[in-house]
């Protein structure tokens, strides 16, 4: 066995002459353990919330979306080469723009999204309908699907027979002050379904209509504002995305789900790592206990050091003993903290020990957790590095005093 490691292990686990040294060492280990456990739990909760929100977005956002970098709309034929790629399973032409909806005496600005009848092959919209059905292509009457927040604001329901009216400015018409209504496309439609994504940007402002109605409203005879697509199962998504981007050239961009919600995911990651830094500073304060523990241990072991020197131990060897002592305190605390944190995450995931309230108004009833291996590695290395740095000062001070 390595001699400095053997002596350091004896110093760590054996009873000291002064009980206060045992107490300080125990407090040091407990402080590192609690700080490490907090890091594991908090970062896992952030991962859990990200997973929950990813699930919500995946029910509505398409796997991939093609948009133009120049202008709002583009010709569908201009991206035909990418859409005919053998690894593209299905695609949907989409027309999206702003409009005004009137229902009874209520008027609201909304976003209209025109989609084809096979739109549910791209996402899982039919699974988040809270009322009605996904039905947009009635040959006799126009129908629409709206978010639950918009339905609440309008006071609308799929069971009501009163129609909604849409008003969209004509793209190429001039406003006649004598007849201003002639500058608008005006269409009525009935509500066929209500969805709930549990995101305000969708639930409160979005209305889905047939793509044919959207073409008529926005004067897009052959243009689209985006194309949403899904790849075949089992393909290399990264490679296919690069191939499609090359076929699209520089004037178009293809985005996956993360890129479509880039601002949201960036904000979530920033919050996660800022929290990691804050907890790391708190952990650093706990690690400072190692300095006090080593300093008192060095004072107590002066006679042992003299004996070791007479037996032939060099100053570097003795210094290494106390360095390993401080490092072992951080390692023991880190391992214990990681194990306790993982246990708590498991119990929270299985039994929901800490709830978010009574369940009303929340996406989930309890705090979600998801353990990511890379986070555990980062936490462990952070704690061990702090312990190593904290052990440098007292051991160097001892070395200079000799």
Can you put this structure into words, describing what you see?
The chain has 402 residues and is an alpha+beta fold. It folds into 2 domains: 3-57 and 264-401, no CATH class; 64-258, no CATH class. The chain has 13 helices and 12 strands. The protein has helices at 3-13, 19-58, 80-83, 148-154, 200-203, 211-218, 237-248, 257-260, 262-287, 289-300, 302-310, 315-351, 373-401, and strands at 64-68, 74-75, 88-103, 106-115, 129-132, 143-147, 164-169, 184-195, 206-210, 223-224, 226-231, 252-256. A 6-stranded mixed β-barrel has the order 3-4-9-6-8-7. The chain has a two-stranded antiparallel ribbon with strand order 2-10. It is elongated, with a radius of gyration of 32 Å. The protein starts with a helix and ends with a helix. The model has no long low-confidence stretch (mean pLDDT 84).
What is the gyration radius calculated from CA atoms?
Answer: 32 Å
Secondary structure class reads: alpha+beta
- What is the total number of structural domains? 2
Percent helix? 40-55%
Number of helices: 13
Topology:
Layout: H1 3-13, H2 19-58, E1 64-68, E2 74-75, H3 80-83, E3 88-103, E4 106-115, E5 129-132, E6 143-147, H4 148-154, E7 164-169, E8 184-195, H5 200-203, E9 206-210, H6 211-218, E10 223-224, E11 226-231, H7 237-248, E12 252-256, H8 257-260, H9 262-287, H10 289-300, H11 302-310, H12 315-351, H13 373-401
Parallel strand pairs: 4-9, 6-8
Antiparallel strand pairs: 1-11, 1-12, 2-10, 3-4, 3-7, 3-11, 5-8, 6-9, 7-8
Helix pairs in contact: 1-12, 2-9, 2-10, 2-12, 2-13, 9-13, 10-12, 10-13, 12-13
